[in-house]
Amino acid sequence: MLLVIDAGNTNVVFAVYDGAKWLGTWRITMQAQRTSDEYAVWLLALLKMQGISANDIEGAVIGTVVPAALYHLRTLCRQWFAVEPLLASARLDWGFAIKMDNPDEVGVDRLLNGLASHHLYGGRLTVIDFGTATTFDVVDAEGNYCGGVIAPGINLSVEALHQAAARLPRIGVGRPVVDSVIGRNTVTAMRSGVFWGYVGLIEGIVERIRKEVGQDMKVLATGGLAPLFSEGTTVFDHVDSMLTLNGLRILAGRNPLPRLTPEKDLLTEG
């Protein structure tokens, strides 16, 4: 069994893959200084409820855009599961070219989405990930990563609006209760601006990408808010909440998993 860890800016997602199917996924809020012991108390209890023990885990892979969290997640794998995790980075074998000026600066979550989308859907693709940032990543027909667009995430934008404007309340992200764009009070006007504003951003950027590429392409959406925005636009061909996790398990299948040796200090960072 493979322990898969996707550590983003907002949440850390743990999942177990048995070689044929996902046995479960579990999510916890990202706190960079959360210790390996804290992770273990929480995760081992959830695994036990699923009938999985620490001894069942034979390997692990970690993808993170939060460097400060890596030490504790790596220690979790070493101390509690007795495995040395594979760390997703641009220097591994991805099976495609990373056509960027500096491949090392590309967030591994974006590469993982590109890897999974090519394997699962094929063809030319734009992958939209609704995370802390909203990213648009372009993959060509051969699976090469061609770059993309980074926009502020919707929750980040909503919070900034509330913080910067004294009379605007904090609102939750959701589809307006009516399809009218024109709000009749402050809250409905804000909800309309947030929801339909992001729908316009999505459709506008996808259209510009298509014009620049010069050919049609499939559009995939992932991330926690992808189902919400699928209600407001027809631009998505697929919504796949497991895309990044599938990218991690595919990457682990392409690269040899490192071994935890007795000589290695379990508490060392390297």
Automatic annotation (TrEMBL):
The gene is coaX. Substrate binds at G107, V108, D109, R110, T186. ATP binds at D6, A7, G8, N9, T10, N11, V12, V13, T132. Its cofactor is K(+); NH4(+). A monovalent cation. Ammonium or potassium. Pathway: Cofactor biosynthesis; coenzyme A biosynthesis; CoA from (R)-pantothenate: step 1/5. GO terms for cellular component: cytoplasm. It comes from Acetobacter cibinongensis. It catalyses: (R)-pantothenate + ATP = (R)-4'-phosphopantothenate + ADP + H(+). Belongs to the type III pantothenate kinase family. GO terms for molecular function: ATP binding; metal ion binding; pantothenate kinase activity. This is Type III pantothenate kinase. Its EC number is 2.7.1.33. InterPro entries: ATPase_NBD, Type_III_PanK. It is found in: Cytoplasm.
